[in-house]
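User: Before I run my own analysis I want an independent prediction to cross-check against. Here's the chain; please return only the C-alpha coordinates and, at the end, one sentence I can use as a sanity check.
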Amino acid sequence: MKRVLTILCLLSFIKISAQEFNKEVTTENGRQLLVGKINLEGLQTPPYNHWFQQGLDSYQVDETLTTVLKEKLNEYHIKLFLGTWCGDSKRETPRFIKILKAIDFPMDHLEIIALDYRKGHYKTSPTGEEKGLNIIKVPTIIFYKDGKEVNRIVESPLESLEEDIAQIIFQKDYVPNYAY
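Assistant: C-alpha coordinates:
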Protein backbone atom coordinates (compact mmCIF):
# COMPACT_ATOMS: atom_id res chain seq x y z
CA MET A 1 0.00 0.00 0.00
CA LYS A 2 2.83 2.35 0.86
CA ARG A 3 4.37 1.66 -2.52
CA VAL A 4 1.08 2.43 -4.34
CA LEU A 5 0.75 5.76 -2.48
CA THR A 6 4.31 6.68 -3.37
CA ILE A 7 3.67 5.95 -7.03
CA LEU A 8 0.41 7.94 -7.01
CA CYS A 9 2.13 10.90 -5.37
CA LEU A 10 4.93 10.74 -7.92
CA LEU A 11 2.49 10.59 -10.84
CA SER A 12 0.48 13.55 -9.53
CA PHE A 13 3.71 15.54 -9.09
CA ILE A 14 4.72 14.77 -12.67
CA LYS A 15 1.32 15.84 -13.94
CA ILE A 16 1.44 19.12 -11.98
CA SER A 17 4.99 19.95 -13.02
CA ALA A 18 4.56 18.98 -16.68
CA GLN A 19 4.65 21.89 -19.07
CA GLU A 20 1.51 22.56 -21.01
CA PHE A 21 2.41 23.34 -24.58
CA ASN A 22 0.38 24.87 -27.39
CA LYS A 23 -2.42 26.33 -25.32
CA GLU A 24 -4.97 27.85 -27.62
CA VAL A 25 -7.41 30.63 -26.80
CA THR A 26 -10.20 32.18 -28.83
CA THR A 27 -10.63 35.94 -29.01
CA GLU A 28 -13.94 37.77 -28.71
CA ASN A 29 -14.22 37.79 -32.52
CA GLY A 30 -13.57 34.03 -32.79
CA ARG A 31 -9.92 34.19 -33.85
CA GLN A 32 -7.66 31.44 -32.50
CA LEU A 33 -4.20 32.10 -31.12
CA LEU A 34 -1.54 30.21 -29.23
CA VAL A 35 -0.40 31.50 -25.83
CA GLY A 36 2.34 30.42 -23.47
CA LYS A 37 5.02 27.87 -24.20
CA ILE A 38 4.67 26.34 -27.62
CA ASN A 39 6.68 23.98 -29.76
CA LEU A 40 7.10 23.37 -33.47
CA GLU A 41 4.21 20.91 -33.42
CA GLY A 42 1.91 23.75 -32.37
CA LEU A 43 3.05 25.88 -35.29
CA GLN A 44 2.47 22.95 -37.65
CA THR A 45 -1.23 22.62 -36.76
CA PRO A 46 -4.13 24.58 -38.27
CA PRO A 47 -4.60 27.51 -38.53
CA TYR A 48 -0.92 28.38 -37.87
CA ASN A 49 0.55 25.79 -40.22
CA HIS A 50 -0.52 27.80 -43.29
CA TRP A 51 1.71 30.81 -42.65
CA PHE A 52 4.40 28.79 -40.87
CA GLN A 53 4.89 26.25 -43.68
CA GLN A 54 4.65 28.93 -46.35
CA GLY A 55 7.37 30.91 -44.57
CA LEU A 56 9.60 27.83 -44.26
CA ASP A 57 9.16 26.93 -47.92
CA SER A 58 9.76 30.41 -49.32
CA TYR A 59 12.85 31.39 -47.31
CA GLN A 60 16.33 30.75 -48.69
CA VAL A 61 18.90 30.45 -45.90
CA ASP A 62 22.14 32.36 -46.51
CA GLU A 63 24.46 29.37 -46.76
CA THR A 64 27.59 31.55 -46.67
CA LEU A 65 26.87 32.23 -43.00
CA THR A 66 25.58 28.83 -41.90
CA THR A 67 29.06 27.37 -41.35
CA VAL A 68 29.99 30.29 -39.12
CA LEU A 69 26.72 30.06 -37.20
CA LYS A 70 26.96 26.30 -36.82
CA GLU A 71 30.34 26.59 -35.12
CA LYS A 72 29.20 28.91 -32.33
CA LEU A 73 25.42 29.15 -32.02
CA ASN A 74 25.03 25.80 -30.27
CA GLU A 75 26.77 27.38 -27.25
CA TYR A 76 23.65 29.53 -26.77
CA HIS A 77 20.16 29.10 -25.42
CA ILE A 78 17.48 31.11 -27.18
CA LYS A 79 14.08 32.42 -26.14
CA LEU A 80 11.76 33.34 -28.97
CA PHE A 81 8.77 35.48 -28.04
CA LEU A 82 6.18 35.75 -30.80
CA GLY A 83 2.54 36.43 -31.47
CA THR A 84 0.64 34.01 -33.70
CA TRP A 85 -1.52 37.07 -34.47
CA CYS A 86 1.44 39.28 -35.49
CA GLY A 87 2.52 39.83 -39.09
CA ASP A 88 6.19 40.32 -38.15
CA SER A 89 6.15 37.07 -36.14
CA LYS A 90 4.51 35.24 -39.02
CA ARG A 91 7.28 36.47 -41.32
CA GLU A 92 10.36 36.06 -39.09
CA THR A 93 9.54 32.94 -37.05
CA PRO A 94 9.57 30.44 -39.94
CA ARG A 95 12.75 32.03 -41.29
CA PHE A 96 14.45 31.79 -37.91
CA ILE A 97 13.39 28.16 -37.45
CA LYS A 98 14.62 27.29 -40.95
CA ILE A 99 18.04 28.79 -40.11
CA LEU A 100 18.20 26.78 -36.88
CA LYS A 101 17.31 23.59 -38.72
CA ALA A 102 19.89 24.32 -41.45
CA ILE A 103 22.69 24.49 -38.86
CA ASP A 104 21.43 21.54 -36.81
CA PHE A 105 20.85 23.74 -33.77
CA PRO A 106 19.93 21.66 -30.71
CA MET A 107 16.22 22.45 -30.49
CA ASP A 108 16.19 21.70 -26.77
CA HIS A 109 18.16 24.98 -26.48
CA LEU A 110 15.19 26.88 -27.94
CA GLU A 111 12.21 28.02 -25.89
CA ILE A 112 9.26 29.45 -27.82
CA ILE A 113 6.69 31.59 -26.01
CA ALA A 114 3.55 32.86 -27.72
CA LEU A 115 2.14 36.09 -26.33
CA ASP A 116 -1.50 37.06 -26.16
CA TYR A 117 -3.09 40.12 -27.70
CA ARG A 118 -6.51 40.11 -26.12
CA LYS A 119 -7.58 43.10 -24.08
CA GLY A 120 -6.17 42.81 -20.58
CA HIS A 121 -3.62 40.21 -21.70
CA TYR A 122 -1.67 42.16 -24.32
CA LYS A 123 1.85 40.77 -24.83
CA THR A 124 1.63 38.42 -21.87
CA SER A 125 1.72 34.67 -21.50
CA PRO A 126 -0.40 32.67 -19.06
CA THR A 127 2.62 31.73 -16.95
CA GLY A 128 4.52 35.03 -17.21
CA GLU A 129 7.68 34.02 -19.08
CA GLU A 130 7.92 37.57 -20.45
CA LYS A 131 8.02 39.24 -17.02
CA GLY A 132 11.12 41.32 -16.41
CA LEU A 133 12.39 40.85 -19.98
CA ASN A 134 11.06 44.11 -21.45
CA ILE A 135 9.29 42.51 -24.39
CA ILE A 136 7.95 45.54 -26.28
CA LYS A 137 7.71 44.15 -29.81
CA VAL A 138 7.30 40.68 -31.27
CA PRO A 139 9.04 38.72 -32.36
CA THR A 140 11.83 39.17 -29.84
CA ILE A 141 14.65 36.64 -30.02
CA ILE A 142 16.88 36.65 -26.93
CA PHE A 143 20.28 34.95 -27.00
CA TYR A 144 21.70 33.61 -23.71
CA LYS A 145 25.17 32.30 -23.03
CA ASP A 146 26.12 30.82 -19.66
CA GLY A 147 22.69 31.85 -18.35
CA LYS A 148 23.14 35.56 -19.20
CA GLU A 149 21.46 37.55 -21.92
CA VAL A 150 23.98 38.47 -24.61
CA ASN A 151 21.70 40.38 -26.99
CA ARG A 152 18.41 40.20 -28.87
CA ILE A 153 16.78 40.73 -32.22
CA VAL A 154 13.61 42.79 -31.86
CA GLU A 155 10.74 42.69 -34.38
CA SER A 156 12.94 42.38 -37.49
CA PRO A 157 16.64 42.06 -38.25
CA LEU A 158 18.76 45.06 -39.16
CA GLU A 159 20.53 43.28 -42.05
CA SER A 160 19.26 39.69 -42.24
CA LEU A 161 18.58 37.11 -39.56
CA GLU A 162 21.78 35.26 -40.41
CA GLU A 163 23.90 38.43 -40.37
CA ASP A 164 22.32 39.73 -37.16
CA ILE A 165 22.81 36.37 -35.42
CA ALA A 166 26.47 36.39 -36.50
CA GLN A 167 26.89 39.93 -35.13
CA ILE A 168 25.43 38.80 -31.80
CA ILE A 169 27.38 35.58 -31.35
CA PHE A 170 30.67 37.25 -32.32
CA GLN A 171 29.78 40.08 -29.93
CA LYS A 172 30.01 42.90 -32.45
CA ASP A 173 28.44 46.27 -31.72
CA TYR A 174 24.91 45.15 -32.44
CA VAL A 175 22.03 47.37 -31.35
CA PRO A 176 18.60 45.91 -32.15
CA ASN A 177 15.58 47.79 -33.40
CA TYR A 178 13.75 49.25 -30.43
CA ALA A 179 16.73 49.02 -28.09
CA TYR A 180 15.68 47.77 -24.67
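Sanity check: Residues 22 and 41 are 8 Å apart (CA to CA).
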